[in-house]
C-alpha cells in the first residue's frame, strides 16, 4: 500500500493532532504512517539519549511505536497533548529498559553525572528544531543547580529518586521537591499548558 | 504517605522517577484531586518538551517494519466506563480505605494544631493541606464538614494491646467521628464495641466491623456526652460494657 508521506522537512514542523490519533485508533494505517513520520525522530532521539545503545534503542523504539498503535484508543486529551502522550510512552519504556539493565549492574554513575552539564552537546543528535532546543536550554539555565541536576538525571538518565538522592548527596524528600520545583519553573518558562 | 508528600511527587511522577508503589499511590491521588491532576498533566507536558529536543532519525528500514507489524497487531478497544462489577466494587472499597488514610493524616494535622504544635508546620503547608483535604473529601462532605466545623477537636490515643483510636468531636454539628487503625484481630467469638459515655452511663455506638481497616463511624453526640470508649465484647456486642475499656477518648467540651 502506498502510504501518504508527510510534508518535507523544510516546512513548518507539523504537530500530531488529536484527530490524527483518532484516525490511528480506528485502525487507519496511513494515519499511523503519518504519525510515524512526525514523531519517529523525537521518539528515537529520546530513547537513544536515555539508553545510549543503538541496538537496544532500535528495539525499544519499535516497542514504543507499536504501543502507540495498540493504545491509540486509550489516549485521553485530558492527560495532555498527543505528542506528550507518545513521548511519555517512549520515556517510560526507555527507563524501564535502563532499570532492567541496571539490575545487571552495568551503569556508570560517575559518567552520568559528568554528562548532566552538557545534555545537548552531542553533535550526532540532529536538532530539527534548534529554536525549541534553545528555549529548553535557556529555561534550564533559570533553574538552581540542584533543580537542574535532579531534572536532568531523572529525565535523561532514567534515574529514580533514591538514585538521584545518593548521587547528589541530598535527602530523598529534597530530590522530590527539587524535581517538582524544577519542572514547574520550566513549565512557566516554556509557557506549557496542558 | 501524607498529602504533602503526595503533592510533592508530581515532578518525579512526570519523569517516571517513582518506584511502583509511589507511582500507584500518586496516580490514585490524581483521580481524587483535580488541581493535582492538572499540575501533573502540565509537568508531563513539560517533561515531554525536554524529550523532544534530542531528535534523531531511526534507521529508515524500521519504518516499513513497524508499519508491517502494526498492520498485523490488534489494537486495544477504547476504555469504557466500568460496570459495577465485583472487581470494581473491591476497587472502590480499596479507594475508600486509602481515603481513610488521607483523612487520618488530615486529622492528625488538626490534632497537631489542637495540641499547639502548629509551629512545626508553616502556615503555607497547613493551608495546602487543608486545601487538599477539601478536594479529597469532596464525596465525603459529611466527614470533612465534621473535621473542619468550628470548634472541632481531635483526640487520639493508643489502644491497649495495639492500634490507635481517634475521635473528632464537632460540637457545632453535635456529632462525633470515630476512627481506629491497627487494632489487633480478635478471636472469632469476640467483637470490638464502641460506647458513647455520658454522665448517665455508656450507650452502645455499635460493633466495629471485623477484618482489615475500619470505616469511620459518625454518631450523634447526645446531651452530656463526655467520652468514647472501646471495649472487647462477645461477638455481636453487649448491652453494656462487660470489660475494661481498651481506650477512652475524652471529648473536649
Automatic annotation (TrEMBL), chain B:
Pfam families, per database record: RskA_C, zf-HC2
Superkingdom of origin: Bacteria
One Gene Ontology CC term in the entry: plasma membrane
Keywords: Cell membrane, Membrane, Transcription, Transcription regulation, Transmembrane, Transmembrane helix
Membrane topology: Single-pass membrane protein
Putative zinc-finger domain mapped to chain residues: 6-37
GO biological process: regulation of translation
Coiled coil: none
Gene Ontology MF, one: sigma factor antagonist activity
Subcellular location: Cell membrane; Membrane
Domain Anti-sigma K factor RskA C-terminal: residue ranges: 103-245
Protein name according to UniProt: Regulator of SigK
Organism: Lentzea aerocolonigenes
Amino acid at each position: 500500500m502506498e502510504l501518504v508521506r508527510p510534508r518535507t522537512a523544510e516546512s513548518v514542523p507539523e504537530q500530531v493532532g488529536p484527530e490524527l490519533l483518532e484516525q490511528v485508533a480506528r485502525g487507519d494505517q496511513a494515519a499511523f504512517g503519518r504519525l510515524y513520520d512526525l514523531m519517529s525522530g523525537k521518539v528515537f532521539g529520546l530513547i537513544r539519549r536515555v539508553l545510549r545503545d543503538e541496538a537496544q534503542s532500535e528495539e525499544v523504539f519499535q516497542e514504543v511505536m507499536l504501543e502507540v498503535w495498540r493504545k491509540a484508543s486509550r489516549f485521553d486529551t485530558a492527560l495532555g497533548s498527543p505528542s506528550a502522550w507518545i513521548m511519555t510512552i517512549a520515556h517510560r519504556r526507555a527507563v524501564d529498559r535502563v532499570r532492567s539493565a541496571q539490575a545487571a549492574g552495568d551503569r556508570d554513575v560517575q559518567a552520568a553525572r559528568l554528562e548532566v552539564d552538557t545534555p545537548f552537546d552531542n553533535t550526532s543528535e540532529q536538532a530539527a528544531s534548534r529554536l525549541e532546543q534553545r528555549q529548553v536550554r535557556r529555561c534550564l539555565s533559570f533553574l538552581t543547580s540542584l533543580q537542574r541536576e535532579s531534572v536532568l538525571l531523572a529525565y535523561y538518565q532514567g534515574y529514580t529518586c533514591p538514585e538521584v538522592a545518593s548521587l547528589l548527596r541530598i535527602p530523598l524528600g529534597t530530590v522530590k521537591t527539587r524535581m517538582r520545583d524544577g519542572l514547574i519553573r520550566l513549565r512557566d518558562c516554556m509557557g506549557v499548558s496542558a | 504517605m501524607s498529602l504533602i508528600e503526595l503533592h510533592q511527587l508530581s515532578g518525579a511522577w512526570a519523569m517516571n522517577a517513582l518506584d511502583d508503589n509511589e507511582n500507584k499511590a500518586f496516580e490514585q491521588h490524581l483521580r481524587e484531586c483535580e488541581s493535582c491532576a492538572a499540575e501533573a498533566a502540565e509537568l508531563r507536558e513539560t517533561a515531554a518538551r525536554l524529550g523532544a529536543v534530542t531528535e534523531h532519525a531511526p534507521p529508515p528500514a524500521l519504518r516499513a517494519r513497524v508499519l508491517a507489524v502494526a498492520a498485523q497487531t490488534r489494537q486495544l478497544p477504547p476504555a469504557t466506563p466500568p460496570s459495577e462489577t465485583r472487581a470494581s466494587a473491591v476497587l472502590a472499597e480499596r479507594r475508600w480505605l486509602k481515603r481513610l488514610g488521607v483523612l487520618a493524616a488530615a486529622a492528625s494535622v488538626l490534632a497537631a494544631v489542637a495540641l499547639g504544635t502548629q509551629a512545626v508546620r508553616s502556615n503555607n503547608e497547613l493551608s495546602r493541606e487543608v486545601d487538599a483535604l477539601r478536594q479529597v473529601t469532596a464525596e465525603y462532605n459529611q466527614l470533612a464538614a465534621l473535621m473542619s466545623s468550628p470548634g472541632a477537636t481531635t483526640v487520639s490515643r493508643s489502644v491497649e494491646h495495639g492500634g490507635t483510636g481517634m475521635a473528632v468531636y464537632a460540637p457545632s454539628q453535635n456529632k462525633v467521628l470515630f476512627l481506629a487503625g491497627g487494632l489487633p484481630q480478635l478471636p472469632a467469638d469476640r467483637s470490638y464495641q464502641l460506647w458513647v459515655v455520658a454522665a448517665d452511663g455508656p450507650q452502645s455506638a455499635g460493633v466495629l466491623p471485623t477484618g482489615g481497616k475500619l470505616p469511620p463511624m459518625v454518631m450523634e453526640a447526645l446531651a452530656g456526652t463526655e467520652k468514647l470508649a472501646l471495649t472487647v465484647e462477645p461477638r455481636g456486642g453487649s448491652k453494656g460494657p462487660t470489660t475494661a475499656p481498651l481506650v477512652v477518648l475524652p471529648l473536649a467540651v
